[in-house]
Write a structure and sequence with these properties.
Layout: E1 4-11, H1 15-26, E2 29-35, H2 41-45, E3 52-56, H3 67-79, E4 84-89, H4 94-102, E5 107-110, H5 115-150, H6 162-174, E6 181-184, H7 191-200, E7 209-213, H8 222-227, E8 228-229, E9 241-242, H9 244-247, E10 252-256, H10 263-275, E11 277-278, E12 287-288, E13 292-297, H11 301-307, H12 312-318, E14 321-324, H13 335-349, E15 355-356, H14 358-366, H15 372-386, E16 391-392, H16 394-397, H17 399-404, H18 412-416, H19 418-432, H20 437-444, H21 448-458
Parallel strand pairs: 1-2, 1-3, 3-4, 4-5, 6-13, 6-14, 7-10, 10-13, 15-16
Antiparallel strand pairs: 8-9, 11-12
Helix pairs in contact: 13-15, 19-20, 20-21
The structure holds adenosine-5'-triphosphate.
GO molecular function, one term: sequence-specific DNA binding
Modified residues (4-aspartylphosphate): 56
Domain Response regulatory: 7-126
Length: 460
């Protein structure tokens, strides 16, 4: 029979017991060690090879109250709470057994034992130990993936722009509470980065941050993606699947582009938020959920409420704290700092040491940035790649060609008809790149999903 890959340590003052237990257990477990004096426990377990400890309850001659065993059990729990401890005693004292189980022992075995029973007890203990090891590993992997996903924190504000300072102030106050956040702002203004910052500053920071882009999902998939589905609920539902609500359990759920949620799912979402329960598609059972909700959109939700395309009661559920991120053209005082930050980032990425010449800096301030921070980031990245001298100059930014595509006015007047400007920009970029979505999206400083959404919106 294959030996189980467990490290067993037997602790007893009786050498005969130690030796006979070791001979038997060696046939079934990869590593079996013995210890006659529990004072040596610390040294042995610090070697990290022990999974399960069989611990005697009494060590001094004439004592049978089990106090020593309970003392060492407590010591082991404090030293390494993941260790599995099976207590043993020659006396069938039920009260002591109950007390030791309450104190954290996994099981209890009476001496003299029956070998089959001992093997069954230790095999069960090993199953428990390996499950908890796997869980520990999965938690470590999750934490590291989460850190990779969130990346290093992005400083949202450098304190120059008043509107952004107010946003930061609100975040600092409300992020540690469990209040729902609604983040409004044009594309590329940093809504996702802001949501991550709220998560980082919350009590859920060590839990998951789950992002659902409702703008990039096909409308048919919304419900099962959010709430999960039962096997057989629809043709492709080959197995039970939890939705993002369940995956975000204990953490933060970020619903991006909430304005795209169809009305019938708005009521299901409202129900979930009011009752803190969800049901998977094709299932009647209600499941409890514990999430912090952050929503974001660039759509005019209040207007949509007036038009009847967004539920007012849902809006008031999700906007406990509302943030409006200013467009970049209204935070010109931050453009230099952001550009310098991106320059450092892309100089490092492309192993360059480029500077930014004054004419280029001035051009950055004059440009209206319809694609906001994301567009600035793309412009600097492309300039770093393409620039030939030691400094990036105005012509490396190619802003005039972008501007030429912007119809009519720039500056504040542009904001008055942002929608037609956006439509025109998208059309031109698509024509220029002969319908190549990736290239057009890159030029516009949008993600492919964001471009698709806009094309759908404008019927392009
Ligand atoms: N304060 C900031 N500092 C540095 N980079 C930023 C900042 N805010 C946003 N960015 C960068 O700008 C880009 C767009 O940000 P983000 O995705 O958060 O915007 P968004 O408003 O969610 O966009 P969309 O509406 O298109 O989804 C990202 O690459 C992000 O890293």
């Amino acid at each position: 029979m294959k030996k189980l890959p467990a490290g067993i340590l037997i602790v007893d003052d009786d050498l005969d017991i130690l030796v006979s237990a070791r001979i038997f257990l060696k046939q079934h477990f990869q590593q079996v060690s013995i210890c006659q004096d529990p004072k040596e426990l610390h040294g042995i377990i610090s070697q990290g090879e022990t999974d399960i400890i069989m611990l005697d309850m009494n060590y001094r001659k004439g004592t049978n109250d089990g106090k020593e065993g309970l003392y060492w059990l407590k010591f082991l729990q404090e030293t390494d709470p993941t260790l599995i401890v099976v207590l043993m005693t020659a006396y069938g004292d039920v009260e002591l057994a109950v007390e030791s189980l309450k104190s954290g022992a996994t099981d209890f075995i009476l001496k003299p034992w029956n070998n089959e029973k001992l093997l069954a007890t230790l095999s069960a203990a090993w199953k428990l130990r390996s499950a908890s090891k796997k869980l520990q590993k999965a938690e470590q992997v999750q934490e590291s993936l989460q850190n990779d996903l969130l990346g290093p924190p992005t400083p949202l504000s450098n304190g120059h722009n008043v509107a952004m300072s107010e946003v930061m102030n609100t975040i600092r106050k409300a992020a540690p509470t469990d209040a729902n956040f609604l983040i409004l702002g044009e594309n590329g203004t940093g809504k996702q980065v802001t949501a991550m910052e709220i998560h980082r500053l919350s009590v859920r920071a060590r839990e998951v941050f789950i992002h659902v882009d409702l703008g990039a999902l096909h409308a048919n998939l919304f419900e099962s993606e959010l709430f999960g589905h039962a096997k057989g609920a629809f043709t492709d539902a080959r197995e039970d699947k939890p939705g993002r609500f369940e995956l975000a359990e204990g953490g933060t759920l970020f619903l991006d582009e909430i304005g795209n949620l169809p009305l019938h799912l708005q009521s299901k979402l409202l129900h979930a938020l009011q009752n803190r329960t969800i049901s998977r598609v094709g299932e009647n059972r209600m499941r409890q959920v514990n999430i912090r909700l952050i929503c974001a959109t660039n759509m005019p939700l209040y207007e949509m409420v007036r038009e009847g395309t967004f539920r007012e009661d849902l809006l008031f559920r999700i906007n406990t704290v509302e943030l409006t991120l200013p467009p970049l053209r209204e935070r010109t005082e931050d453009i230099q700092a952001l550009a310098d930050q991106f320059l450092r980032q892309f100089n490092t990425k492309y192993r360059k040491t480029l500077g930014l010449r004054k004419d280029a800096r001035d051009a950055l301030l004059r440009y209206p940035w319809p694609g906001n921070i994301r567009e600035l980031q793309h412009v600097i990245e492309r300039a770093v790649i393409m620039a030939e001298g030691e400094e990036i100059q105005e012509s490396d930014l190619h802003l005039s060609s972008r501007k030429a595509e912007v119809p009519a006015a720039t500056g504040p007047a542009a904001a008055m008809d942002l929608s037609s400007m956006e439509q025109q920009l998208i059309k031109s970029a698509l024509e220029k790149h002969k319908g190549n979505i990736s290239k057009a999206a890159s030029e516009l400083g949008l993600t492919r999903a964001a471009l698709y959404r806009r094309m759908e919106k404008f019927g392009l």
